[in-house]
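Ligand-bound model needed. heme-as.
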Amino acid sequence: MRSAEHSFTQTNVEPGLRKIILFEILFPMVLLVLGITAGFLQVLFRAGIIRSQSFLGIEYYQGLTLHGAINAVVFTTFFAVAFGHAIIRFHLGKPLLLGAAWTSLILMTSGTLMAALPMLAGKASVLYTFYPPLKAHPAFYIGLVLLVIGSWIAFFSWIPLYRQWKREHFETKTPLAVVGIFATFIVWFIATIPVAIEIIALLIPWSLGWTKTVNVPLARMLFWFFGHPLVYFWLLPAYVMYYTMLPKLAGGKLYSDFAGRFTFLWLVAFSAPIGIHHQYMEPAISTTWKAVHALFTLMVAIPSLVTAFTIAASMEHGARTSGGTGLFGWWRKLPYLDTERWMFSYLFAGLVLFIPGGITGIVNASYNLDSVVHNTSWMPAHFHQTVAGPVFLSFIGGSLMLLTMLTGRDVAFKRVNVWIPYIWALGIMVFSTGLFYGGVMGEPRRTNMGLSYANPASPLYRADWTFARMTGAIGGTIMVIAMLLYFGVFFGTLFSKKSAAPVLELPASEPYHDEDVAAVQNLRPWLVAAVLLLILAYTMPFVELARGKYEGAPAYDPGSPIAQVR
Ligand code: HAS
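Prediction:
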């Protein structure tokens, strides 16, 4: 089997689908303004620059919930669906099922608004992990369920189109980007089943007052059964861009088609049976299962290592094609600041951030090292280099790319635009240096330090954390500057004059090595492996926790970072 020749470089998109994709990009982008503002407030609270429970009417944990829920859940889910529509439409060349796409959009939007209201009213300050005993208004949980169901409908609507395409092209490999999008949504589907069980069976009845309490360790395990594959649901669309767009943008070809397929399919199998690595410190789960999840976690890093070498080789091919020479001299020929191939800069800056982000992930995966940094500021440093690194940069770059194509507008402020990812990456590097350093010294995450550790008037004040706090604040401020510039470019583009007819013209890389490996042509064995690994990893922990009798957790006092003992 050979890869499909990409015969169409431009695809006309039906007006209905254009509206759907544009809405799915614009709506979360408007919310992102609030999400980013809430993030900046976090930095100020934690640095001790704001020393109060709330600021501008936004309470600390309310702001933290808005920041996590909007940036990490709403923005990412909307983008993944919009991007999925664009990839399926472009690479399969078939009109989408518009009825399903509209239904999906309506459910996702109404779910988001339903969850946003209690968050804005301060009745759902439960953070993006919504662990009990933190309790939210039922509308928050119901809204999340609608958001998820909406995204499922989009996914299900692509399946008949793919089957039809496959019947017509049975001799051709499925386009790599389509494999990547299906992998994304299979991982998402697997992830969302346990969290649906948590929300529907445990949290909604408890929040409505139908049940008195919930099994906290069980709820937490169900959350992480969702929470870890969630991070690969974020990463996979970024990987689709790395494998199918970046080589072309670099002026070359994808080094290995096999590596891309292997990466996507391996993540289908190994994304989910590893959630307990978030719970190494959870006393209710026995060490055997923590060890099993630790082993599988190391397996999930393999495709990212494969990606690092494959994408580096693809960039080298591009740079050498553009005249680059020497062992390292070719790096100079990459289009870092090319205002026409600006998407390269968004993807490249993300890759650079992912190097320390990935290494610190492997640190976290090691039980004994994780016991030093768990629940410290090390964690937000790790996840800003991953989800706010390659994921966020490729998603905001991808949003701008789809906006220009589907409205027929040119990017506004091109020179500024090409610098934004590097300013953002610099901000993240400085920010996470502060947070990593603070983390190894014990600085906690999710804590309003302006009331305690960063307040000289408090008995808890820690002068030795000043460097960490201030570095974090400087990095956070640089990130905010990058985002202000991005919003200027994004909305400047939106309100600029139309310069061409709207068409979808995604960069599509050709393979350099087009290997024919049967093991990555068929999804079924990977799905079977995913199910078997899940049964192995979760059956016993589930039985242990479902049977366990646990005392209620101490009451939570938002005014104090110290747990209140009853
Ligand atoms: Fe993680 C916690 C382990 C990847 C996100 N992670 C989190 C949390 C988030 C998150 C949000 O084992 C916190 C959740 C919370 O709120 O509590 N993580 C890992 C491991 C990986 C990993 C082993 N994480 C991610 C990705 C995320 C993400 C991706 C988002 C998208 N993580 C953990 C663990 C915890 C955790 C524990 C829980 C800890 C605790 O105590 O709570 C691996 O998948 C990482 C593999 C990645 C690599 C890097 C490959 C590098 C590439 C770049 C190449 C660059 C090039 C450019 C070519 C091996 C592909 C070259 C250019 C030059 C200039 C040189």
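The pocket of heme-as is lined by residues 129, 231, 234-235, 277-278, 297, 300-301, 304-305, 307-308, 311-312, 351-352, 354-355, 358, 361-362, 364-365, 370, 374, 379, 382-383, 386-387, 391 (CB under 6 Å).
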